[in-house]
Design goal:
This protein is α+β, with helices and mostly antiparallel strands and about 775 residues long. It folds into 4 domains: about 80 residues, no CATH class; about 230 residues, no CATH class; about 220 residues, Transposase Inhibitor Protein From Tn5, Chain A, domain 1 (Alpha-Beta Complex), CATH 3.90.350.10; about 70 residues. It is built from 23 helices and 22 strands. Strands 6, 7, 8, 9, 10, 11, 12, 13, 14 and 15 form a 10-stranded mixed sheet that branches. Helix 23 links the parallel strand 21 and strand 22.
Length: about 775
């Protein structure tokens, strides 16, 4: 073995240069020219060619599998990838060297799965209107492969002379809908001749059914009447030849989620859809128009599909039947439409229109307006502004939404994504927006918590024509219990009783404010300040404590509607002139706190030494000072440093523009506001509609306060049937989980049927039944 390396390290002068790589105390490699030998305990263990990468990987994996070396040691010594080493080790343990070699093979592992028959079947199913996910499930291919196969199915120019196919240069025409299924325009809903020209023979004539659309979800049975074939409309939409698809409801039995249509009457009565159309007009031509998009978002709120991605968990045909279409929009389509709404910038117009409608229809709820900020934490990587998150007790990147609720506790307005330091800075702009909504001359009382405490702000609130009601903040006196008396009042259908003291208070140089002190059962005293003197003291306390309904709304909306979820990851430039607390002062504050802690610790040691001083050894103070001179010098040094830092801090401004706090060249950013504002408004509308149904449950359901919203959630998910009869879309709902709930839902349906609402975009009106026509009477 004249060409081998000697483990002792001796080398012949004629041999090439040797390189030794130590793996650990047990193993090392010695390379001589083109050959490399692995030594374990100074015994040759394996020999391979130096430039053989596969053999090197085998050595690395074998060292780990045999327990000679740790993976980290092998990775550091042999310069192999940790992921590759892990993969090779698993293959070596499972099947030895052949399995490891087979794992490195390049190219296809076998014949292609995309045969000619599978390709033809996928394209055929796509022409029938099935989605790509369902086609992939049926033909046994991946969704990406199916997408590549069928991507041009609706756009291809077919050869002339084949039935039902497009000729070169020919414009497709939408077919007429069969019988009573067409309900797209005013006056529609009357029987029409089927597409094949067979005359209508009256009510007993069989309906023309299309079997092109079947439920794609494996756990849902096919309806008795199939959906309409909308492929031609989709081709027209692809070329932008139609504004939106025609609304055509298809009768059927055993349909899922038809209970979500219970939300529609309340939304229509509130004028929500009219407000959306007035604010946005219309979207670009396509299959899914403005009504379809907004209706989808509203139904998602009823079904608690909190994000667009959650649409994949329900069969698209189930939601499509509720829209009067063949299927609901896909996730990417819905996001694209919401992004288009965001570019139109109509959220503020929509919010103002909804507020004006509420001011006209329910003026009594504007007597007391509750304002509070809701902080949405942000855990992404964008350098957005920070806010204090109460739940986490720290400041972190976040955005604040300011919500305005009415006297009934329901949300009225929302201001989304305001980057302001406190409620005191945001309150006046909010009140100006409220004044534009409620009109001049109407006086309302603004209720807020201690975050808006500012005597200067109180004067401005009164000057704008509003009254205020808030908790007293800061130093406040404690009154003797003899000053309190029990007072009772009946408000909002309930009797309230408090131990109160009614008096006045002086805020700085502003006298004349009213102060109501409430003695709690635990002995604490809560004080409320207001400028209204005509209100009784119990009503003042009741209205102030009712502010907790806002907190309850934030908690409920966050859990049920994903109020804090991001609707887009996009950001937009922030106002560079906005001021923020000076970070340099904050850093000096941190250093000052640290110096004070060190100084207090040294003074504590000095005091302890003085207490334990032996007067027989050091009877004089001078002797004590000399004995503890180093400790005293350290205290003086800390005091000098603290004084110097305080002088530096005094020279720095309290607030600086946000642009100065960012690294050089970095533009201040904030989360995009428009899309989040629109989604907040839709969630507000859905919550108000759900609350309207909740209120109607009270007479028929004794446990409404505890189970009312849970009952509605179950009703929204209820299955049932759709029938078209004499200009009505009759929704038959299946019984609920308990007889008492079914009876409550029957009473609710009877109330909704007293004044049937018209479905937006059609001439059909909604009627509801529970397992029969009982509630139609």
């Amino acid at each position: 073995m004249s060409n081998d390396c000697d483990p002792s390290g001796t080398a012949d002068s004629q041999k090439p240069e040797e390189i030794v790589v130590h793996i650990n105390k047990l193993a090392f490699l010695r390379t001589c020219g083109a050959g490399t030998i692995v030594f374990v305990n100074y015994h040759p263990w394996h020999r391979f060619t130096t430039d053989d990468a596969l053999d090197l990987r085998f050595v690395a994996a074998n060292l780990v599998c045999s327990g000679v070396a740790e993976p980290s040691e092998v990775v550091a010594a042999l310069k192999v990838s940790r992921a590759t080493l892990h993969r090779d080790r698993l293959r070596l343990e499972e099947g030895g060297l052949p399995a490891m070699v087979a794992g490195t093979a390049r190219g296809p592992k076998g014949p292609t799965k995309v045969t000619r028959n599978l390709r033809a079947e996928a394209r055929k199913l796509r022409r029938q209107g099935l989605g790509k996910c369902e086609i992939a499930r049926r033909v046994g291919l991946s969704e990406k492969t199916v997408r590549d196969i069928v991507k041009d199915v609706l756009l291809e120019k077919e050869r002339p002379g084949r039935q039902g196919e497009l000729l070169e240069g020919e414009v497709p025409v939408a077919p007429e809908a069969p019988e009573v299924l067409r309900a797209g325009t005013e006056g529609a809903g009357t029987p029409v001749a089927p597409e094949d020209g067979t005359p209508d023979e009256g009510p007993g004539a069989p309906r023309v059914e299309s079997k092109a659309f079947e439920p794609t979800h494996p756990h849902h049975a096919a309806p008795t009447a199939g959906n309409l074939d909308r492929s031609v409309e989709r081709v027209l939409a692809r070329f932008g030849l139609i504004e939106e698809a025609t609304v055509c409801f298809v009768p059927g039995q055993g349909l899922h989620f038809v209970g979500a249509l219970l939300l529609l009457p309340a939304l229509v009565d509130s004028g929500f859809f009219d407000a959306v159309e007035a604010a946005y007009g219309k979207l670009k031509n396509g299959f899914y128009g403005l009504r379809h998009t907004v209706m989808t978002l509203a139904l998602m709120g009823a079904l608690r599909l909190r994000r667009a991605e959650h649409l994949v968990h329900v069969p698209p045909e189930a939601i499509g039947r509720l829209l009067g279409l063949d299927r609901a929009p896909e996730v990417k389509t819905l996001r694209r439409r919401v992004a288009e709404l965001g570019t139109l910038g109509g959220a503020d117009r929509l919010m103002r229109r909804i507020g004006e409608d509420l001011a006209r229809s329910e003026p009594e709820v504007l007597a007391f307006l509750y304002v509070d900020g809701h902080v949405r934490p942000y855990s992404g990587k964008r350098p957005i502004a920070q806010a204090y998150v109460t739940q986490r007790h720290l400041a972190m990147p976040a955005t604040t939404d300011f919500w305005l609720h009415g006297a009934d506790g329901q949300p009225l307005l929302v201001v989304t994504g305001e980057v302001v330091p406190a409620l005191t800075k945001a309150l006046l702009p909010i009140l100006e927006a409220v004044r534009r909504v409620i009109g001049p001359g109407r006086r309302a009382t603004i209720v807020f918590d201690r975050g808006g405490w500012s005597p200067k702000l109180f004067r401005k609130i009164v000057a704008l024509g509003f009254d205020f009601l808030t908790y007293r903040k800061g130093k406040r006196p404690r009154y003797p219990e003899s000053d309190f008396s029990v007072q009772t009042l009946k408000l909002d259908g309930q009797e309230v009783s408090y131990r109160l003291r009614d008096g006045s208070c002086r805020l700085g140089r502003q006298p004349g404010y009213r102060c109501i002190a409430i003695l709690r059962t635990d002995g604490r005293q809560t004080q409320v300040v207001t400028n209204r003197r005509e209100l009784s003291a119990p009503e003042v306390a009741y209205r102030m404590f009712a502010r907790w309904r806002q907190e309850n709304f934030f908690k409920y909306a966050a859990e049920e509607f994903a109020l804090d979820a991001l609707d887009t990851y996009a950001t937009e430039p922030e106002d560079p002139t906005r001021t923020v607390p000076n970070p340099a002062r904050r850093e000096l504050d941190r250093k000052l706190r640290q110096l004070r802690e060190e100084e207090q610790a040294l003074l504590a040691r000095l005091g302890s030494a003085a207490d334990q001083n032996d007067e027989q050894v050091r009877p004089t103070l001078r002797g004590f000072k000399l004995a503890h001179a180093p400790l005293r010098d350290a205290v003086h040094a800390l005091q000098t440093r603290r004084t110097r830092l305080q002088e530096q801090r005094a020279q720095l401004p309290d607030r600086v523009p946000v642009a100065e706090t960012r690294p050089h060249g970095q533009v201040p950013e904030k989360l995009e506001v428009e899309r989040k504002h629109l989604m907040n408004i839709i969630k507000l509308a859905v919550y108000r509609a759900e609350t309207a149904l909740f209120t109607r449950l009270h007479p028929a359901y004794s446990r409404t306060a505890d189970e009312g919203r849970a009952l509605l959630r179950e009703a929204f998910h209820a299955s049932g049937s759709l029938e078209l009869t004499e200009g009505f879309l009759q929704v038959g709902l299946a019984p609920l989980s308990a007889p008492r709930r079914t009876e409550a839902l029957r009473a609710l349906c009877a109330h909704l049927n007293q004044k049937p609402v018209r479905i937006p975009g059609t001439s059909l009106r909604l009627k509801f039944t529970i397992g029969g026509p009982e509630c139609l009477n």
